[in-house]
Amino acid sequence: MFNRFLLLITSLFLAACATPIKPMNVCTQPVGMPAIIKYGDAYINVNPPVMTVKKNKYLRFKLDGANQPGPNGIDYEELKVTVVARDATNKTWVNFTKTEKELAPTGIFEVCMPDDQPLATFKYDVKVDTHGNLDPRVRVIP
């Protein structure tokens, strides 16, 4: 009986050791240009429309609201901009709501690309309060 118990415990221990451990995301310093999200009176633009990013690198977004007040005195620096992945599994890494004022002085927000993200092109939505939506892409490369 004791031998079976010892065999069972040893088997469980060895099985636990054989289970691969998911590596942590350790993003390196951001490089390259961010996706620039420009918005103002009756327009939203994301440039480039398809961003390319490597695993364990930062995907960068820059909010750039119009400098002039909009109709009814809208301050574009205070409009909420939401960037969210369309695929539910990616919403853990692309999912934020910010204003340009919150990100002052640079207007840049960075998201770490997961190291286990499949190599593919992913859609995300850019929603600017009271203005509308766009659906640019992120291409993940090795």
| Outline type | elongated
Q: Uncertain runs with pLDDT below 50, 5 residues or more?
A: 18-23
How many strand segments? 10
Structural class comes to mainly beta
Would you give the CATH topology? Immunoglobulin-like
Mean pLDDT, rounded to whole units? Answer: 80
Structure keywords:
six-stranded mixed β-sheet; mainly beta; 142 residues; Immunoglobulin-like; 38% strand
Walk me through this protein's architecture.
The strands form two sheets. Strands 3, 5, 6, 8, 9 and 10 form a six-stranded mixed beta sheet that branches. A four-stranded mixed beta sheet has the order 2-1-4-7, with no helix packed on it. It has one helix and ten strands. With 142 residues, it is mainly beta. It has a single domain, classed as Immunoglobulin-like. The longest helix has 17 residues, at 2-18. It starts with a helix and ends with a strand. Residues 18-23 have low confidence and may be disordered.
Write the layout of secondary structure elements.
Elements: H1 2-18, E1 35-40, E2 43-47, E3 50-54, E4 58-65, E5 81-85, E6 95-98, E7 108-112, E8 121-128, E9 132-134, E10 137-141
Parallel strand pairs: 1-4, 3-10
Antiparallel strand pairs: 1-2, 4-7, 5-6, 5-8, 8-9, 8-10
